[in-house]
Amino acid sequence: MSAHTNDAADPDDASDANDPGDPDDANATDGPDGAALATARARLYGLLAAAFDGETETIAEAFERDAFTAVADALPIDGEQAIPGGDGHDADSLAIGYDTLFVVPGSHYVPPFASAHAADPSEEFESDSRYHTAGEAGELLGDPAADMAQLYAAAGFSPRRGDGIPDHVAACFEFMRALCEREATLLEGGGDGPAVEAVCDLQAQTLSRLGWLDRFDEAVAEQDTAEGVFAGITRLARTFAAWDASEVVAQSDDRPSDTEHA
Fold this sequence. Notes:
The longest helix is centred in the C-terminal third of the chain and has 26 residues, at about 230-255. Helix 2 packs antiparallel against helix 7, helix 7 (about 170-190) packs antiparallel against helix 8 (about 195-205) and helix 8 packs across helix 10 (about 230-255). It is globular, with a radius of gyration of 18 Å. The two termini are about 20 Å apart. It is built from eleven helices and no strands. It is an all-alpha fold. About 55% of the residues lie in helices and about 0% in strands.
């Protein structure tokens, strides 16, 4: 595994962090082309990463171009009820909603990182924060952050998103985008078996750590009742990540094992 990790997600190979991908090209996934599917997955992860990183101009443009629907329609997921709607919202109004939900601690604040939604406290955590009680789950930079940081290190990846918080949802989706882009590049080049397997293994490990999106989705839906824009984006993220996790596991099961090659 270690022999292939540097090929899995070189941050220098990733597209510019401000470009979530052109959703108009997403329909290239028609047919069994694995590279095109990986590219479409990368584009949706990139769009979601930008959204959860507060790029409200990107979000507003995506709504104007109907990009969420275009990218989701290019993937075989049952996301009809998860497609967010943002009619009538510009970048400024979206920025207010984003800050209220994900930036400013208050009555509607929902932390956008995994540690805050963990069921159990980290073993070695101490905090003097008035927003967290020692011995309870929900700390900043807990075990989920350490787990994600280890995955990034294994892949030679440095997140540009997420405010330096390894388990921030924007950083996790940025990582998945890079992994999917790397998979697409490998498949377009003929599909180096061990390298593709290493990338897909990192994808599976990352997706297995995104179960907290269920709790995150429920919390955002509870707090974003007035506009519902970010509740819709969060529901799409949860739906897509769950579908992708099942697909990555299925593909792993379908790949021949070493003993079958023997």
